[in-house]
Design goal:
It is a single chain. The chain is an alpha/beta fold. Helices cover 40% and strands 24% of the residues. The protein contains 3 helices and 6 strands. The strands form 2 sheets. It has a 4-stranded mixed β-sheet with strand order 4-1-5-6, with helices on both faces. The longest helix is centred in the last third of the chain and has 19 residues. It is globular and about 45 Å long.
């Protein structure tokens, strides 16, 4: 059975997230999400991103889209600056233990890979 993953892409549109010069969080989040999507698809996983361009991405809409997609696991991608630092991945919380463990594992693997490129 093919697994389904939903990737929430933080910020977008009029909400750029953290900005430092020409580095914009919403763009960084999208690059990470698109790269992850390619890698997961390479392994036969069905993937849906909350956004594929620089567009508004309201949290309520994102949650509704995720729930409608009915993924096996879901993660959210943000890269922070003010009030937090570095890269962070939120994972799915569910009463289904197997899905919870998969979501946590994917979040941990993604964070470990991104950290290889951080100073």
């Amino acid at each position: 059975m093919t697994k389904k993953v939903f990737i929430g892409v933080g910020h977008g549109g009029t909400d750029p997230g953290a900005v430092n010069g020409n580095i914009i969080e919403s763009h960084c989040n999208l690059v990470v999400a698109l790269t992850l999507e390619q890698e997961l698809k390479r392994h036969g996983v069905q993937v849906l991103l909350s956004r594929y361009g620089d567009e508004p991405d309201k949290l309520a809409d994102e949650i509704a889209e995720c729930n409608a997609y009915k993924p096996d696991l879901a993660i959210e991608i943000h890269t922070n600056a003010g009030g937090g630092s570095g890269f962070e991945v939120f994972h799915q919380v569910t009463d289904n233990w197997a899905r919870y463990r998969l979501s946590v594992r994917l979040a941990q693997l993604l964070q470990r890979e991104v950290q290889k490129y951080q100073k």
